[in-house]
Amino acid sequence: MDREETPFNRAEVGLPEGQEEASPITETEMPEDEKTRRARLMRHFIEYRVLGINPVYSEEESEDIFGGLSVAEKANLLYEKILARQATLRTMERQEAATGATAPAEEVDPDLLSDIQALWSDKGVQELFIDRYTDARMDAKAYRLSDLGRDWEDLNIVIEVKQGQLKRISQDLFLQRITREDRLSAARSRVARLARELIEKRQTRDDIVSLKGLPAIPENTDVAAHIHYEHLREMRNQSESGSRFVWLPYYEGKLRKITAALQNGRWPILMGEGGTGKSHLAIAAAYALTGSAPLKVPCGPRTNEHDLIMDKDIKDTDQGGGSKNTYGGLLKAATGFDDSTQLEPTCDHGRIVRLDEFNRIDPKGQGYSIVKEARQLHPGEMYYDHPVLPGFGAIA
């Protein structure tokens, strides 16, 4: 269990603010009192932070409640229930932050705390739980301090930095923010160089996971196991987020292909069953190239000029009456204007349009013809009395 995934962080177990852990040492060199210290802190956390001043069940009462379980099963159950408590506290904190609530937060379910009390009152469960926890914490510390673990963490930092650099330069090129020929040439060369370096770094990172060219000694296999665990933990967090979409390596490769197509002036078509991630890929590609969310246009057999270009909107009589043209997704994305009354565009760059359910559009209808015509536009050309902005494109 590494520091980030364990529910027992520095503040919770009572370490003074700013106090650092022991100096780097390997697992075999770690002194006995380090394990004793961790055990003491864990006991302090459970007995004072989790159970508080509530009376703890007697060992006999605990046996009545969980008598059918072995000591190992009770220790596992105790860990699961403590994780549930910590997850609940984090959820309540997020809800309070989102709503700005000032009222006292609701308490953790008292039955959950009663179960923790009952399990903790078993001395055998206490000893096994503490022993497992301290061993896992020291294993995680040894992993962080190993050479291979450091190489992995350093690679992730380098990859993140280079991805950020590549994203910024790619956006500048896509939105034509770089115009001088010398700077254009230099930026294109830098993009190519960063892309090559990222491929090499990702391959090196993959080799660490698979232990390619490395001896399968316990230290290395432990690092590979920790890396796989971190991947699974990250995917679980993504699946539990609002979108419930998990960024598998497969999708990362598809995203690179989609952005490359848009950068080359093509409008890609994403095909697949419902729920396979087409919308998430389109949104991610739009953000990667423009820094803005795409404009969604639902498509169907009757999609026409009113949906894609403009529709007449009658003003309220309280505003003086009259009418204006409200722009559709294609015209908004291409020009940055939302309606005919604006003197300046809302957005200073072109945007990506999501042509949702594009397969439902009538290939012989007006909507298809409008999309086909817009596909031929280039930055600077006039489109319904407005210049087309760099960055305009679409994903079907």
Please sum up the structure shown.
The protein has 396 residues and is mostly helical.
Q: Which stretches are low in confidence, meaning pLDDT under 50 for 5 or more residues running?
A: 1-31
Q: What would you call the shape?
A: elongated
Oligomer: single chain
Q: Can you write the helix and strand succession as a string?
A: HHHHHHHHHHHEHEEHEHEEE
What is the average per-residue confidence, as pLDDT, rounded to a whole number?
79
Biggest sheet: strands side by side, in what order? 1-4-7
Question: Could you outline the blueprint of secondary structure elements for this entry?
Answer:
Elements: H1 10-13, H2 32-50, H3 59-66, H4 71-99, H5 110-120, H6 123-145, H7 147-174, H8 181-210, H9 218-239, H10 249-263, H11 278-290, E1 295-298, H12 305-308, E2 310-314, E3 323-327, H13 329-335, E4 352-356, H14 366-374, E5 382-383, E6 386-387, E7 393-395
Parallel strand pairs: 1-4, 4-7
Antiparallel strand pairs: 2-3, 5-6
Helix pairs in contact: 2-6, 3-5, 4-5, 4-6, 7-8, 10-11
Describe the structure.
This protein is mainly alpha-helical and 396 residues long. The chain contains 14 helices and 7 strands. Strand 5 and strand 6 form a beta hairpin. Helix 10 packs across helix 11. The longest helix is centred in the middle third of the chain and has 30 residues.
Task: Write a concise keyword list for the protein shown above.
mainly alpha, 396 residues, 56% helix, 14 helices, elongated, single chain, three-stranded parallel sheet
